[in-house]
């Protein structure tokens, strides 16, 4: 591996930044030594409350509990919109860039207010009230943001489901949360292709008895089937209601949203976030991590279906009164220069994306980058998976022309907002390291015995103290929340990641320590893909592991055993990929499927994934001990039949 140099904070970096190293260290010290005072001050600075809190924070990890600003009341939509209107009514809140490079529009804070209030009124008229769950299954269009904020305004809990998920996956999520309404579109548009959202939604809703209303945005005008009792055109309904809508005052700990994410076992979990703490940390990290300055155009390329879209397209930027760019398309359409063309077109100052996108664009060649000016760019960011130093260096040197610091932000759906991240102007950067903790975050590394590692070392990454945007529960199953995050290491929040800490106290995420895959920055449980595969009538058993993939970070390698008499054909391979797309979505399609005569199992019947992982990674010389296997000869057959890459 090439040794990559540290990028020191330069004078140019610190010219106007919110933090230099001394300020970061002073604020961090206060945040952990006097957290109640620190966070009360931050809440005063970042949020408007209609009623002040009685207590700042409370935590009991043994019960999986955290609570912030109890006794206070506020409304998230008022914080993201109304309070900016006196000074920012005409300022752009959202820039929407369509899939087609000729489509874009600017939405001012006043327009955002009008649209959100209208949709909130429509929801209320259809009987949706505080505490009800509303599913949002949308393409990347401004109405997705309106929908989230309209829910927040009336106190409904939104559950955004990524538009790439299948009808089956959508159905499960709607039913888990017993949503009463769905907001969707006729079709989405990505990379010049149509995505049949209404068709998918109709299929899902056949088995979702709780949904009484489906509000449909007309995006492409495609012919769609219609259920008069249930379906409502967005443009028709919103044209008949007022642009005024009284906001529901919510308790600080009232739920704001549910977002499903994959774990090592079982079905996806509905991660529950609440109102005040979530918004505070989303807002505060947005300002400090991205060093947001008045007038900056900021662009996060995530989809609103993931937590990054929630915190860093919608809530963080809008709580700060910023201008947030929302892109409907993909980075490679019409060609691999699209992102940089967009940066020039809209004068983007801050650009936030995933390592998988960086690697894909790096592979396309520098000329797609250098044909643009990118002079507006001041800061670059990454999220979603560890970034390999080569990709970091390319991002830094070619995209940012060495001028822009890179913030490598480690966090999770469950953490709600940034947890480990550099701050521009304060933190020297090491390519591949998410560096140091954000204010108030106290990470630790635990060894195999659950003891804290002191100084440099490696272990399981845990968090010791509550932070404002901490997961509050798994929707409908608090026990599962305790079991997943607070039981492995009692007294700590367990992230599921491994990490190393170096001599400077910098953290290096080494990847998941559980059976969770990270494919192109998308989290997926191996168990989910396995249960899709075994749906096929020819499949007896399936075991899925990850392997290193140049672009995606991890690829999906599936081992499958067949029912007696089933034939190994090309069609079968295709059908198996198809069933994953059908049950979960295209992101779950295995890259490699190996039909094996048997799976390596212990005598107690447990599949030894370690061996399957080694074979998938071409590391057959270091398989380790196979003596506990019920039938060691299975391993030879698997090695023999492995699919070379
Ligand atoms: C925000 C988001 C969370 C998992 C997390 C970790 C990986 C995220 C990372 C990173 C290394 C980073 N991850 N950011 N690994 N460096 N900067 O991605 O949420 O979809 O819940 O995924 O992603 O493994 O545990 P989510």
UniProtKB/TrEMBL annotation:
<keyword id="KW-0547">Nucleotide-binding</keyword>
<keyword id="KW-0067">ATP-binding</keyword>
<dbReference type="InterPro" id="IPR020845">
    <property type="entry name" value="AMP-binding_CS"/>
</dbReference>
<feature type="binding site">
    <location>
        <position position="308"/>
    </location>
    <ligand>
        <name>CoA</name>
    </ligand>
</feature>
<feature type="binding site">
    <location>
        <position position="520"/>
    </location>
    <ligand>
        <name>CoA</name>
    </ligand>
</feature>
<feature type="binding site">
    <location>
        <begin position="190"/>
        <end position="193"/>
    </location>
    <ligand>
        <name>CoA</name>
    </ligand>
</feature>
<dbReference type="GO" id="GO:0003987">
    <property type="term" value="F:acetate-CoA ligase activity"/>
</dbReference>
<dbReference type="InterPro" id="IPR045851">
    <property type="entry name" value="AMP-bd_C_sf"/>
</dbReference>
<dbReference type="GO" id="GO:0019427">
    <property type="term" value="P:acetyl-CoA biosynthetic process from acetate"/>
</dbReference>
<feature type="binding site">
    <location>
        <position position="536"/>
    </location>
    <ligand>
        <name>Mg(2+)</name>
    </ligand>
</feature>
<dbReference type="Pfam" id="PF16177">
    <property type="entry name" value="ACAS_N"/>
</dbReference>
<feature type="binding site">
    <location>
        <position position="523"/>
    </location>
    <ligand>
        <name>ATP</name>
    </ligand>
</feature>
<dbReference type="InterPro" id="IPR011904">
    <property type="entry name" value="Ac_CoA_lig"/>
</dbReference>
<dbReference type="GO" id="GO:0005524">
    <property type="term" value="F:ATP binding"/>
</dbReference>
<feature type="binding site">
    <location>
        <position position="534"/>
    </location>
    <ligand>
        <name>Mg(2+)</name>
    </ligand>
</feature>
<feature type="binding site">
    <location>
        <begin position="408"/>
        <end position="413"/>
    </location>
    <ligand>
        <name>ATP</name>
    </ligand>
</feature>
<feature type="modified residue" description="N6-acetyllysine">
    <location>
        <position position="606"/>
    </location>
</feature>
<feature type="domain" description="Acetyl-coenzyme A synthetase N-terminal">
    <location>
        <begin position="24"/>
        <end position="80"/>
    </location>
</feature>
<comment type="function">
    <text>Catalyzes the conversion of acetate into acetyl-CoA (AcCoA), an essential intermediate at the junction of anabolic and catabolic pathways. AcsA undergoes a two-step reaction. In the first half reaction, AcsA combines acetate with ATP to form acetyl-adenylate (AcAMP) intermediate. In the second half reaction, it can then transfer the acetyl group from AcAMP to the sulfhydryl group of CoA, forming the product AcCoA.</text>
</comment>
<feature type="binding site">
    <location>
        <position position="512"/>
    </location>
    <ligand>
        <name>ATP</name>
    </ligand>
</feature>
<feature type="binding site">
    <location>
        <position position="539"/>
    </location>
    <ligand>
        <name>Mg(2+)</name>
    </ligand>
</feature>
<dbReference type="InterPro" id="IPR025110">
    <property type="entry name" value="AMP-bd_C"/>
</dbReference>
<feature type="binding site">
    <location>
        <position position="497"/>
    </location>
    <ligand>
        <name>ATP</name>
    </ligand>
</feature>
<dbReference type="GO" id="GO:0046872">
    <property type="term" value="F:metal ion binding"/>
</dbReference>
<protein>
    <recommendedName>
        <fullName>Acetyl-coenzyme A synthetase</fullName>
        <ecNumber>6.2.1.1</ecNumber>
    </recommendedName>
</protein>
<keyword id="KW-0007">Acetylation</keyword>
<dbReference type="GO" id="GO:0016208">
    <property type="term" value="F:AMP binding"/>
</dbReference>
<dbReference type="InterPro" id="IPR000873">
    <property type="entry name" value="AMP-dep_synth/lig_dom"/>
</dbReference>
<keyword id="KW-0460">Magnesium</keyword>
<dbReference type="InterPro" id="IPR042099">
    <property type="entry name" value="ANL_N_sf"/>
</dbReference>
<feature type="domain" description="AMP-dependent synthetase/ligase">
    <location>
        <begin position="84"/>
        <end position="465"/>
    </location>
</feature>
<comment type="similarity">
    <text>Belongs to the ATP-dependent AMP-binding enzyme family.</text>
</comment>
<dbReference type="Pfam" id="PF13193">
    <property type="entry name" value="AMP-binding_C"/>
</dbReference>
<dbReference type="GO" id="GO:0005829">
    <property type="term" value="C:cytosol"/>
</dbReference>
<dbReference type="Pfam" id="PF00501">
    <property type="entry name" value="AMP-binding"/>
</dbReference>
<keyword id="KW-0436">Ligase</keyword>
<dbReference type="InterPro" id="IPR032387">
    <property type="entry name" value="ACAS_N"/>
</dbReference>
<feature type="binding site">
    <location>
        <begin position="384"/>
        <end position="386"/>
    </location>
    <ligand>
        <name>ATP</name>
    </ligand>
</feature>
<feature type="domain" description="AMP-binding enzyme C-terminal">
    <location>
        <begin position="528"/>
        <end position="606"/>
    </location>
</feature>
<keyword id="KW-0479">Metal-binding</keyword>
């Amino acid at each position: 591996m090439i040794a990559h140099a540290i990028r020191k904070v330069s004078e140019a970096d610190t010219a106007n930044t919110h933090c230099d190293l001394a300020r970061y260290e002073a604020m961090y010290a206060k945040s952990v030594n006097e957290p109640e005072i620190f966070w009360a001050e931050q809440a005063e600075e970042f949020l408007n409350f209609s009623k002040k809190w009685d207590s700042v924070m409370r935590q009991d990890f043994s019960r999986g509990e955290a609570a912030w600003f109890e006794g206070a009341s506020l409304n998230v939509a008022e914080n993201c919109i109304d309070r900016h209107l006196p000074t920012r009514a005409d300022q752009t809140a959202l820039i929407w860039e369509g899939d087609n490079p000729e489509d874009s529009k600017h939405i001012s804070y006043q327009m955002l207010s009008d649209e959100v209030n209208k949709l909130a009124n429509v929801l209320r008229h259809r009987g949706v009230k505080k505490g009800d769950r509303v599913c949002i299954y949308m393409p990347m269009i401004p109405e997705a943001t309106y929908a989230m904020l309209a829910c927040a305004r009336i106190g409904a809990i939104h559950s955004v489901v990524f538009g790439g998920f299948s009808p089956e996956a959508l159905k499960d999520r709607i039913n888990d949360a017993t949503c009463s309404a769905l907001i969707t579109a006729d079709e989405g548009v990505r990379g010049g292709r149509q995505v049949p959202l209404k068709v998918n939604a109709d299929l899902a809703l056949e088995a979702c008895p709780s949904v009484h209303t489906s509000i449909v945005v007309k995006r492409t005008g495609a012919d769609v089937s219609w259920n008069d009792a249930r379906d409502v055109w967005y443009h028709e309904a919103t044209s008949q209601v007022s642009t005024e809508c009284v906001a529901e005052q919510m308790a600080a700990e009232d739920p704001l949203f549910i977002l499903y994410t994959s774990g090592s076992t079982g079905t996806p979990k509905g991660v529950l976030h609440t109102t005040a703490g979530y918004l505070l940390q989303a807002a505060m990290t947005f300002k400090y991590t991205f060093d947001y300055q008045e007038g900056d155009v900021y662009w996060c390329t995530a989809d609103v279906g993931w937590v990054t879209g929630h915190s860093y397209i919608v809530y963080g930027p809008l709580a700060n009164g910023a201008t947030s760019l929302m892109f409907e398309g993909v980075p490679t359409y019409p060609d691999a220069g699209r992102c940089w063309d967009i940066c020039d077109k809209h004068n983007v100052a801050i650009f936030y994306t995933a390592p998988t996108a960086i690697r894909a664009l790096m592979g396309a060649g520098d000329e797609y980058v250098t044909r643009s000016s990118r002079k507006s760019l001041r800061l670059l960011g990454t999220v979603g998976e560890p970034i390999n130093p080569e990709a970091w260096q390319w991002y830094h040197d070619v995209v940012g022309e060495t001028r822009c610091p890179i913030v490598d932000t480690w966090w999770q759906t469950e953490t709600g907002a940034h947890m480990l991240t550099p701050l521009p102007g304060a933190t020297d950067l090491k390519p591949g390291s998410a560096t140091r903790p954000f204010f108030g975050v106290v990470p630790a590394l635990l060894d195999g015995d659950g003891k804290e590692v002191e100084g440099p070392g490696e272990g399981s990454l845990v968090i010791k103290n509550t932070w404002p945007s901490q997961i509050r529960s798994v929707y409908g199953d608090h026990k599962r929340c305790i079991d997943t995050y607070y039981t492995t290491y009692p007294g700590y929040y367990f992230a599921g990641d491994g990490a190393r800490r170096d001599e400077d106290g910098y953290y290096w995420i080494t990847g998941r320590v559980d059976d969770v895959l990270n494919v192109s920055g998308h989290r997926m449980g191996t168990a989910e893909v396995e249960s899709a595969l075994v749906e096929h009538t020819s499949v007896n058993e399936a075991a899925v592991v990850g392997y290193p993939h140049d672009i995606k970070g991890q690829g999906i390698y599936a081992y499958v055993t067949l029912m007696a008499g089933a034939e190994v054909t090309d069609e079968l391979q295709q059908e198996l990929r198809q069933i994953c797309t059908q049950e979960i979505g295209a992101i779950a399609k295995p890259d490699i499927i190996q039909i094996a005569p048997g799976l390596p199992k212990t005598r107690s019947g447990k599949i030894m994934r370690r061996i399957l992982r080694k074979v998938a990674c071409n590391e057959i010389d270091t398989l380790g001990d196979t003596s506990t296997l019920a039938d060691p000869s299975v391993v030879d057959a698997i090695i023999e039949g492995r699919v070379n890459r």
